[in-house]
Write a structure and sequence with these properties.
The protein has about 100 residues and is α/β, with parallel strands linked by helices. It is built from 4 helices and 5 strands. The chain has one domain: Glutaredoxin (3-Layer(aba) Sandwich).
Length: about 100
Amino acid sequence: MESVLSYLEFVSKVSDAQKSFLLLYQKGSEQSTCAFKNVEKAAVETDRARFFSADVNIVKDIHGLYGVESVPSLLVFDEGKLANIIKGCHDSNYYKDLTQSNL
């Protein structure tokens, strides 16, 4: 999972990806740590999609642009367009199934 530091950096990296996922999280939060760990595990097992993460303590411009008011949130993109937002922490199998069903 690749870390991004701004909206512009993210869109430049996702523009050519058919499917991509962006985890917005807050480092130090128990729920965010859970989501980060489980999304990262799913990302390792899925090679046909691109995975990104952004810590809202550092990256201030992404969550507002997508209307995200709580973290952790996994943003699902289809050809660079937001298709879904999954809130909270879920089991790694949930994220793996989600990424597989979106491919």
